[in-house]
Design brief:
Blueprint lengths: L1 H4 L2 H24 L15 H76 L1 H24 L6 H29 L6 E4 H18 L3 E6 L4 E4 L1 H17 L12 E9 L2 E8 L9
Parallel strand pairs: 2-4
Antiparallel strand pairs: 1-3, 4-5
Helix pairs in contact: 4-5, 4-6, 5-6, 6-7
Length: 285
């Protein structure tokens, strides 16, 4: 009972003390120095003896109850701690998973941005050629317009001016297309798929001419959607460059060196296809 009420060390100390006292009394009794009265053995039991026995049982029961209560409380605290630990572990796993997704998304965005710069670098020669051509056209038309005498026909002057304006519009379109490739925005708006595809075709047409590739684009009507025109432009550029690269070092039939692009509306879906007849992708890739 002292072990339950006080502590284990106190119970061991009390036990050793009792053993020492009982041993001493026994030695004294054996040596005759201490006489024990045994007259109580001949006395008859009384109700007081029953009270004492019952009191001892009650004390033992109370001590056992106190011990069990403390044990149950300790178990409850342990179970509650286990539940809290599980919750914290689950929250930690969720946080780690969310953080991992954020890091992967950030890494993917960085890689995508680097890829866009690499693609623009690959198209730089074509881009410079496409910019120089309309600049030369504008310069020649403006120079010829400047050399025209006042008696020249106004119609001829307007034609020269119109060609110069067309060249500037082409420059504006090319610059806007390149800017879209470099931007990393997610602004959404209503835009024409046909116009975006035509802009990209102008951007890569010099590279196609250099590889003797014919481009065929067909669409039933103009299709507009709501979304990110920048991301759509980047997607189409990647697909077209892949199709063009399929003809690199390709010795197939010249009549098949073409890329067919179709854009159609089918019920509630928009179907966009790019078909090439190049060497394809190796099985190991």
């Amino acid at each position: 009972m002292s072990g339950v009420l006080v502590g284990t060390r106190f119970a061991f100390f009390l036990t050793l003390s009792l053993v020492f006292v009982i041993s001493c009394l026994s030695l004294l009794q054996i040596q005759g120095f201490y006489l024990v009265s045994t007259s109580w053995r001949n006395e008859q039991n009384t109700f007081a003896d029953t009270i004492i026995l019952n009191s001892m049982l009650v004390v033992i029961a109370v001590v056992a109850w106190l011990s069990n209560r403390e044990t149950e409380r300790s178990l409850q605290r342990a179970r509650a701690s286990e539940v809290e630990l599980k919750k914290e572990r689950n929250l930690l796993e969720i946080k780690v998973e969310e953080r991992t997704k954020e890091l992967r998304q950030a890494q993917l965005e960085k890689v995508t941005q680097l890829y866009r710069f690499a693609e623009v670098g690959r198209l730089s020669s074509s881009l410079f050629h496409d910019l120089v051509t309309p600049l030369s056209l504008i310069s020649l038309n403006l120079e010829e317009l400047n050399n025209k005498h006042q008696q020249e026909k106004i119609a001829d002057m307007r034609a020269l001016l119109r060609r110069a304006i067309q060249g500037t519009k082409y420059l504006e379109t090319a610059i806007k297309t390149v800017r879209k490739q470099l931007q990393n925005q997610d602004a959404k708006r209503i835009f024409s798929l046909n116009k975006e595809i035509k802009h990209i075709l102008k951007l890569v047409q010099h590279k196609m001419r250099g590889m003797n590739i014919k481009m065929v684009f067909s669409s039933t009507d103009e299709i507009k959607i709501y979304g990110s025109d920048i991301k759509f432009s980047q997607l189409i550029t990647n697909l077209l460059l892949n199709a063009i690269d399929s003809y690199e070092n390709f010795s197939g039939e010249k009549s098949k060196r073409e890329i067919i692009i179709t854009l159609n509306r089918q019920k509630k879906m928009i179907v966009f296809t790019i078909t090439d007849f190049g060497k394809g992708i190796m099985k190991e890739d």
